[in-house]
């Protein structure tokens, strides 16, 4: 009988930059429909882990399974076509392109010809409709973050990897982003992994947590059981 794996399954993942190892034997499983947060101090390897999942960092050893396929050696564009969207820290909006053209860039990740922007995008992010012809670089940080998430949705992902979506964003927009991510998860069934420094944001949004320290997952569990003692030990909160 075939074994059914979680939607995303990392097994003994080791990776780094050149000769410098950064991730050590990371095991991480995220089930379909779940929201997981990845916590840890600066420099412990959270971004490197997300980059390894989307294929921007090759593994030294270990395997990554997605949707029951071994994607360890698949190039980034194929991972995107299989349904992994990556929204990097800093958002990477093209500043001189309009909001509309930034959105359309998301189509290319799916490998399909550009079509109309689905109405649901404006339903999730009404602000974008008002700014379609503005240059992306003129949006506020919070608006750019919303644009980046919307662009990620254009390839119809099964999972979204988000790196610090609330960084440098004013509280009212942080709340909006939290609500929209929850809607995207519930209404579209999209699985989410979010790297976060804002513990309360992560706690409210995610059902599952992983804590990283020196390139390894040192604690994991349900967020409603995320003890303050762990936060003190690993995040110095
Ligand atoms: N392009 C790179 N080349 C070499 N080393 C890198 C590179 N990017 C990151 N590193 C190193 O890898 C380690 C992990 O960095 P990473 O960005 O993954 O951590 P992080 O937990 O995401 O931190 P932050 O919260 O600051 O983004 C750090 O020691 C960092 O200096």
Task: Kindly summarize this structure in a few lines.
InterPro entries: AAA+_ATPase, ABC_transporter-like_ATP-bd, ABC_transptr_urea_ATP-bd_UrtE, BCAA_Transport_ATP-bd_LivF, P-loop_NTPase. Keywords: Amino-acid transport, ATP-binding, Nucleotide-binding, Transport. The chain contains nine helices and ten strands.
Explain what the structure shows.
The chain is α/β, with parallel strands linked by helices. The chain has one domain: P-loop containing nucleotide triphosphate hydrolases (Rossmann fold). 36% of the residues lie in helices and 27% in strands. A six-stranded mixed sheet has the order 6-7-8-3-9-10, with helices on both faces. Strands 2-1-4-5 form a four-stranded antiparallel sheet, covered by helices on one side. A hairpin with a 2-residue loop joins strand 4 (59-66) and strand 5 (69-70). Helix 3 runs parallel beside helix 6. The longest helix is centred in the last third of the chain and has 18 residues, at 171-188. It is globular. The termini are far apart. 37% of the residues are buried. The structure holds adenosine-5'-triphosphate (ATP). Adenosine-5'-triphosphate is lined by residues 17, 20, 22, 40, 42-48. This is Branched chain amino acid ABC transporter, ATP-binding protein, putative. Belongs to the ABC transporter superfamily. One of its GO terms (molecular function) is branched-chain amino acid transmembrane transporter activity. It comes from Acaryochloris marina (strain MBIC 11017). Pfam families: ABC_tran.
